[in-house]
């Protein structure tokens, strides 16, 4: 069956434009609070490089927690499987910024995608380097994956989060007290806030997502074994306490961010990205989830099909 992705995306774009309940834009990072909830974009990038889009797919937005996928790839590259001594691989069933389980597990976060786990991951990826070096390398990784050198970090967003980041500081100091931070907390958090402030468009993110599937040619940023494992983590933990719901509705590895973006991998088929700033109660894009659900229904790309 040949898929008419142009028609499928047009239909999704029209349905999402008409939606009235669009969720709530994140307000705890002041710079994100002013984004218009009416924005919507989506892109699908095929392994041969063809890109299909709808809506505001070329508009850069704050990728926030989607960055955690790239940092995880970097930390695993630096430390190999030893990384897992510092971070578990289990779904948390808790909010992304919860501190509850950290006490229970003596400073070992549940997975690399909840905030505590992501801070530990950034700390591991720093590996004694200066934050600016780490951020340069992270940007290089993302630019190579996206095939686009124009991707940048929005300093205003990083500063905005730094100014309101006490909860993340609490998580980091709690881990430090248990010996699970290798760098001084302010240094690791500075790197973390900046990684979250990377801006990308759906078109760039969809292409970047292809680093997590088999490509005939193009850059190979991680090994096949590592790809499988990162995809597994995304499937089980990429949407926090709504990861089960995302797996049920979409059936693909995906990672959300509070900027309203979701990066999704359809193994062997495509890289997918969607952006709609309004969030559901678990901090994931409300319409973004619905849009990927529609796409998967139309394409049959769920890994469970
Ligand atoms: N879920 C998210 O996107 C959270 C990322 C955000 N920068 C934070 O640390 O709170």
TrEMBL record:
Transmembrane segments: none annotated. GO terms for biological process: glutamate biosynthetic process; L-glutamine catabolic process. Its EC number is 3.5.1.2. Pfam families: Glutaminase. It catalyses: L-glutamine + H2O = L-glutamate + NH4(+). Coiled coil: none annotated. Substrate binds at residues 65, 115, 161, 168, 192, 240, 258. Keywords: Acetylation, Hydrolase. Gene3D superfamilies: DD-peptidase/beta-lactamase superfamily. SUPFAM superfamilies: beta-lactamase/transpeptidase-like. One of its GO terms (molecular function) is glutaminase activity. Homotetramer. Belongs to the glutaminase family. This is Glutaminase. The lineage of its organism: Bacteria, Pseudomonadati, Pseudomonadota, Alphaproteobacteria, Rhodobacterales.
